[in-house]
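Backbone geometry:
***
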Amino acid sequence: MKRRTLIVNGVLVVLLGAAGFGIYQAFTPATNTAQAQTRSSPVQRGTVTETVSAAGTIASGYSGSANFGTSGKVTSISVSVGDVVSTGQRLATVDGTTATKQLQVAKANLAVANENLSNADTANGQSTTALQAKVDQAQLDVETAQNAVNATVLTSPGSGTVTAINGTVGQQVGSSSGSGGQQQSASGSGSGSGNNSQSSSSASSSSSAFITITDMTNLVVNTSVAEIDASKVKAGQKATVTINALPNAPVQATVSKIDLTPTASGNVVAYGTQLTLASPPDGLRPGQSASVVITVAEADDVLSVPAAAVTTAGNASTVVVEDAAGQTSTKTIQIGVRGESTVEVKSGLNEGDRVVVTAASPGTTNNGRTGGFGGTGGFGGNGGQRTGGTGGLPGGTGGRG
């Protein structure tokens, strides 16, 4: 009986010990079990590139919208969707019977006014002032009537491909408001012929136009950059554009412009940016999505270290240097271009020096959860990871890759 009691008590002690250990493990922070991993990397010469990434959309460099400048019934449409047209080419017409008659009447009135002026008896002191005024008014009436006749013919505001026809023969159309010319997108260019309505709004251009003309060869990429990067992006900088539908065929591009005023969506402020494609691939269409990487700074043949080895606080940057005996020390360095994976070192290190990169062990576990890289930057590729590893918790302050 006494022996059985001792056995039971022993089992209870073991169970209580196991429970206590489990509670200790449950409340022990991950940092207590994380094992630091270090490696050293040589200071070497190379090219350091700083880039800005963004999402973009393929667009046409020119999109013109042609609308009739007079009311009437459509009598003909001379083009079809897909036709390539040139500036000034006839696209469609409306019934010009009334406009033509008004022009004939205006010309007849001008002829009468000129005849009355020429027959004035100036020898008897007849004044020609009133007669000359009638001639001038008749000339204005002829010009107005001629413009009305011209407005019955819709011409192309620019060169490109007919991408939309929003009307049919026999349809009654109304005079569009405007000062003459053509609707065009913000990125478009060209001059109107005076018989179509003009608008600076590209959004309403394609939807409200009787006929839309789009340049399918002069394609651009519209994107936007975050306010923190806006000061770095400038016209003329090189970029690489990867079309999402053609991921294996990146296209070279150049920044053509960046807006001076921002657009805001909620708390996000960005600046519209446009890129010109060097050699657009065949089959590219406006509206396709793309990824953009703009090179904003580059330094060739310079000393560089992994970005994960550099710790920056304020304006001061430091690295941990390892000597031949394995001893480490902290050095202050002056950095230049900061790339995604490497950083340019302007002073403080020599080629061949070795810098230390530290990361939390990727295999460390905390209550069954796999710990990720973090700490001061991790070992992701050549420059560390931005966040904790897959399935892990972000380490420390989160490394910058």
Remarks:
- The two ends are 67 Å apart (CA to CA).
